[in-house]
């Protein structure tokens, strides 16, 4: 079965000018995948959007759920029907690819899908959902292409519409206090500054035309004092405005960051399981670009636009002919920036993706440093990271080349404009249309206009590029949080009953069942061991009971209450758990044992450590409970960690205790002591184990090997 998963690939070197599309030919939109297994979905979205039914990943997720293993060809064909597309899966040898109906989807490197968009003298063009647009040589293409193609085309029921779901900039400032007041303050201060700047050219004009011509020193002194005072006011206002921007920017940054992190940390566990950590960090960092434009970009765009308009009128009053020359040059720069915008956007997106891949590789390397050292793979891993880091640098180089070309074109226009304006300006002065002072004032206004209009155009395109960051943030903000507004509460009892009623679970409609029609009951205070071969769904069942996954079918009751009607945050306050991939957080042992409770009960912590048989181990450490630990840095053994995790779970005084291989690293003596201590506690226990000693400590056994999903 062909699966669609992301494999990390490095794109070929692409020259910036090769990305310019000047032919007017319809382009296949580049849609990047967000999850590690969404390349098939992203490929379908690209072709659907190409034909006019504009969709993105967010709009498709609602009715096309992709499992952790991705999509196969059959599932992709079924998904395309929902978008009004007909499909045809074929085998196509390399020599026949020119006969394919483009764009089409190619099976790639046995575990990935890409979109073939064109074939030219420059190479074979593909849209890779993992890394962006690529231009490949025949050899590079042959090394990755598997020979399997999915052709998609509009069916009679196909409808052109826009179904894309994206977050709007207005949604980012809805919960930010003081935004409008600060923006208005910045706007007023900016108007004062620019008003002073508008008067400054008159100083040169009056000095040249009035002072020098009449040798009027008293007037020169008055003008110097007046315009000097005006400059002083301008400097003071500018300093105050800069300080206000610092304060405003800090307030916006902390509020936006807090709001986004508040949402991110409350997303369901499945969100994090399907993404690389570097990509999540990269998407979260997009908030910085949005914050910068919110704090100064909006005000500066308004001021620069107004300033350019007012100065243009002032220039027109001096000389309409010279004004048309200046305005024509500004218009040319706008079209130059428009020409470079789309390749700039593509390369910027590629740079962001490359940076996310490099971050993921870096973080994964140090999280798995022990494995890397044991396999002597330092050099291999270094090369792996270096390839990704080189792509970040290459993206910066491509972007730099594009910016150099753009800046050179703009500088050429303004240089020619200056030459032409001075030439015609001199002619106008010689003909008596302007005085020398008026020409100097006009040139000063021209410089102001050029500065303002250039900044205004830059801001316009920056706001257009903001859509790129909003689209990346949408992957976080549009994701639904875990339920938290339910009002049902659990009864106040020491230990809880548990009932699983016809529960089934699978990751998507097209994947196999992990758990199928499972039913059992656990009485209050009872200890039940769940057994079965690896991969039979034991840990998945545990996640369902903990609310980390939601049953596809069936219900789970705790003390007679359906957990789907409970706030997960409140529900988990009654649960204790030790899972296989539990982590310590950066801090002291006491902070980790009490989960950073500022008012923790020291005696209770000691008792829980004693019950988990880890008290002596902790007290033998030089710093005892004040020993610093973290997710990577600690000298604790696997057995000590498991006992610390158990003590942490017991500190919650849970009604239900879930243990997933929680004693797998312990010797028999330690395990016996812990089992005896925990069995004396008045709480219901659900444990997963393979060791006979652990299984035999349970009151009852549920063997999942006898319940095989179908």
From TrEMBL:
- Peptidase C39 domain location is 33-152
List residues traversing the bilayer. Answer: 183-204, 219-240, 293-315, 321-342, 420-445
Q: What is its main location?
A: membrane
Q: Where is each ABC transporter domain found?
A: 498-707
GO terms for biological process, alphabetical? proteolysis
Q: Which UniProt keywords apply?
A: ATP-binding, Cell membrane, Membrane, Nucleotide-binding, Transmembrane, Transmembrane helix, Transport
Can you supply one Gene Ontology CC term for this chain's record? Answer: plasma membrane
User: Carries keyword Mitochondrion?
Assistant: no
Q: Name one Pfam family in it.
A: ABC_membrane
Source taxon at top rank: Bacteria
Bilayer topology: Multi-pass membrane protein
Record's subcellular location: Cell membrane
A GO molecular function term, named singly, is: ATP hydrolysis activity
Q: Where is the ABC transmembrane type-1 domain?
A: 186-465
Q: Which named protein is this?
A: Toxin transporter
Which species is the source of this protein?
Vibrio jasicida
User: What does UniProt list as this organism's lineage?
Assistant: Bacteria, Pseudomonadati, Pseudomonadota, Gammaproteobacteria, Vibrionales
